[in-house]
Specification:
The complex is a heterodimer of chains A (148) and B (563). By secondary structure, chain A is mainly beta. Chain A has two helices and nine strands, in the order H-E-H-E-E-E-E-E-E-E-E. Chain A has a single domain, classed as SoxY domain (Immunoglobulin-like, Sandwich). In chain A, the strands form two sheets. Chain A has a six-stranded mixed β-sheet with strand order 1-6-5-8-9-2, with helices on one face. In chain A, strands 3-4-7 form a three-stranded antiparallel β-sheet, with no helix packed on it. Helix content of chain B is 32%, strand content 21%. The chains are: A mainly beta (148), B alpha/beta (563).
């Protein structure tokens, strides 16, 4: 038996609903200031500290976007205090910084983002010890058709 | 792919994997010149469980001619390894004698003359005979269908897939995966699933709105004292390669981490074996097998490859069982202590003149076809040459379709989808059923519109990258879009955006001008609201008007570079 969230929500309509996520989310700010590059945003986030590649942060994204206007992504970095997410080739590369308080049960977040074109997504996690780890995933935005 | 030697070494290392690979037996049978049903089905029973795999029949109920590809370019790590080996190289790799039945079944050389010697292949009444024979020998068998079963013929279009569900139920399918099934639209898919006496599995099919699993991911099938976990994996790029407006509720994707999660879940329930019934396509399955831990067997579909030996990746075997009902794979397994300890495999070729039709299935197929007999058998014209589609670039059938589009829709350039389905036609009559075999679909409108040279190039680059991206996870498993009225060069190994060069209009031999607008006609648009006559009517009109299909001036001119 497959139990879906949709079914549960439908079944429990009338009951109180949503859990409160222990995350602070700072969405990218609308601004008239010059757009910062991905590197600049990373430098700001790390304060110029060294960023190591690899284990510790996971970025999950589709290889090919089904709809570039709303691409589901998720990030996870056990023990992190913050995770920065960038879409490197978007006109404004900043996507989000997820900050996790000491009471956060897990250091994971999921959202949907808009991608202008095929590009690398980058996630940088600030770990509890102050170190930084980085990972990337390439997401292709395609015209489609002709499969089979 | 693993060589035969690596195979045996691996077998010795793990335990009782046998030297008696199916192909060897088959070759021996063939060498005796006399094909008999007993020889085709001959198999020394092995182990304690049998998997039977059928896939990608594309609703071809009756036996077909089907010419295997002459061009199947592999990029990156896949270069030079199956299934990217064709013709004589394929024959050498597997020790197949030119002109033998197996050469006819698996490769393209001399196809036309061998087709006349060895006859059509497939047909669900013959497949039923094979399945029944295996089950009689091996009560503990599991019959699995990799999908692309409901779509692809006149009768499946007219019955909206119901004919195939009836056939699957009678055959005793025990689980299926999917791809073109979804092009009947969500409502119809749900109706058909209700009719299925077996589960429709899809671990990677998610609800778009809630981003959570929308279908049963797996089914644990009990055979004897073994619990077998069968995971379904739908074609990952359905909403990109096919019209997503027909199934807007669902999201797909490879979702490798999801596959690992489902495998782990099955392992935690102490299943004895984990089988992935996949519609990923062979190269994607090959990569996935190396990255997801704990799958014993991948039954691979989508890319229509018939591979006579299992391909070993780590401790996972990948079985590729061809298309259009030409083959049935039998995999005998020795399952011990929660894992596969050994296997024996045979890709059984369904020679329709050799294998007796099963009367029960033959009766059902007759019943399905009866209301449509006159339409199916209507002779539309004749061809003076072999018509086929399969291959990376235009086949002769595609040339006919593109010429029909150019002339009937008065276009400068024709585009026809690079799908891998559609049977071949030998010189002689072309029936309406033959035309539907290469055109049938729920979005067959033949549009006519304008496109700039720049857009045309962008579209072709995009499609080329979907086939020739060196990372299999970015491939969609089709072939290159077919073109009419157009010449071009392609370098499959080049980077995205740089593969297509020398685009020229054949009519006046001028370079395609990026700024000029061209009249382009085509079919199988993924956009909602596409208007135009159905492509099968366009092709039929063209064949009737021209008095048949002749091999005249090339409708396309494609140069492949950089190999």
């Amino acid at each position: 038996m497959l139990i879906s969230r949709r079914a549960i929500v439908a079944a429990s309509a009338g009951l109180a609903g949503l859990a409160i996520l222990p995350i602070g989310l700072r969405a990218q700010e609308a601004t008239t200031a010059p757009v910062k590059t991905a590197d600049e945003i990373i430098a700001e986030f790390t304060g110029g500290a060294e960023v190591s590649e690899g284990d510790g942060v996971t970025l999950t994204a589709p290889e090919i976007a089904e709809n570039g206007n709303t691409v589901p992504i998720s990030v996870e970095a056990p023990g992190a205090s913050a995770i920065l997410v960038l879409a490197t080739e978007n006109p404004t590369p900043g996507v989000a910084t997820f900050n996790f308080g000491p009471l956060a049960a897990s250091q994971a977040a999921a959202t949907r983002i808009r991608l202008l074109k095929t590009q690398d997504l980058v996630a940088v996690a600030k770990m509890a010890d102050g170190s930084f780890v980085r990972t990337a995933a390439n997401v292709k935005v395609t015209i489609g058709g002709c499969g089979g | 792919m693993a060589s035969r030697r690596e195979f045996l070494q691996a077998g010795l290392a793990t335990s009782a994997i046998l030297a008696g690979l199916g192909m060897t037996n088959w070759s021996r049978a063939m060498a005796q010149q006399a094909l008999t049903q007993d020889q085709l089905l001959q198999f020394d029973d092995f182990g304690n469980l049998t998997l039977i795999h059928v896939t990608d029949a594309h609703a071809h109920l009756r036996p077909v001619w089907f010419r295997e590809p002459a061009t199947n370019i592999g990029v990156g790590e896949a270069a030079g390894r199956v299934p990217h080996v064709v013709g004589e190289s394929f024959q050498k790799m597997f020790g197949i004698a030119p002109g033998s039945p197996e050469a006819y079944a698996l490769t393209y050389p001399d196809f036309e003359s061998l087709a006349r010697s060895y006859g059509r292949m497939g047909g669900f009444d013959r497949v039923a005979t094979v399945v029944k024979a295996i089950r009689a020998a091996r009560p503990d068998s599991i019959l699995l269908d990799g999908g692309d079963t409901w779509h692809g013929s006149y009768t499946s279009l007219k019955t909206m897939g119901e004919d195939m569900v009836r056939v699957q139920n009678l055959l005793g399918i025990e689980a299926m995966s999917s791809h073109w099934e979804f092009t009947f639209g969500t409502t119809r898919v749900q109706e058909l699933i209700e009719m299925c006496q077996f589960p429709f599995l899809g671990a990677n099919i998610y609800d778009v709105e809630w981003d959570e699993p929308a279908f049963e991911p797996y089914k644990i099938i009990q055979k004897g004292d073994l619990a077998v976990g069968v995971i379904g994996q739908a074609f990952p790029y359905l909403p990109i390669a096919n019209p997503k407006w027909m199934f807007p509720e669902y999201s797909f994707g490879i979702r490798e981490e999801r596959m690992q999660e489902v495998v782990d879940e099955l392992r935690s329930q102490n299943v004895d074996l984990v089988v992935c019934l996949s519609h990923n396509g062979f190269d994607v399955d090959h990569k996935m097998a190396g990255r997801v831990r704990g799958i014993d067997v991948i039954l691979s579909g989508h890319t229509h490859d018939a591979i006579p030996e299992p391909v070993l990746v780590g401790e996972t075997i990948i079985i590729a069982s061809g298309s259009h009902g030409k083959f049935v794979s039998r995999v005998d397994l020795d399952v011990q202590g929660g894992r596969m300890a050994g296997f024996r495999h045979k890709l059984i070729p369904v020679f329709s003149d050799v294998i007796q039709p099963d009367p029960e299935m033959a009766a059902l197929i007759d019943d399905i076809r009866a209301p449509f007999t006159a339409d199916l058998e209507a002779v539309i014209g004749q061809t003076d040459h072999l018509l086929y589609r399969r291959g990376n670039f235009n086949g002769t059938w595609d040339d006919v379709i593109c010429r029909a589009i150019l002339e009937e829709r008065d276009a400068e350039i024709a585009l026809s989808p690079g799908v891998r389905w559609g049977a071949s036609v030998l010189p002689g009559d072309i029936t309406r059923e033959d035309i539907h075999s290469v055109t049938s679909m729920t979005y067959g409108q033949c549009y006519r519109s304008e496109m700039t040279g720049e857009t045309l190039k962008t579209v072709m680059e995009d499609v080329a990258d979907n086939i020739f991206n060196p990372d299999p996870y970015y491939q969609q498993g089709g072939d290159m879009v077919r073109v009419g009225g157009l010449a071009y060069s392609i370098d499959p190994m080049a980077a995205m955006g740089n593969r297509i060069t020398d685009l020229r209009l054949i009519a006046d031999d001028t370079p395609i001008d990026p700024a000029r607008s061209y009249v382009v006609a085509g079919w199988a648009s993924i956009n909602e609201g596409t208007e135009g006559p159905q492509i099968w009517d366009v092709v039929e009109d063209h064949i009737r008007k021209s008095g048949g299909v002749r091999q005249d001036a090339p409708v396309s001119n494609i140069t492949v570079k950089g190999l």
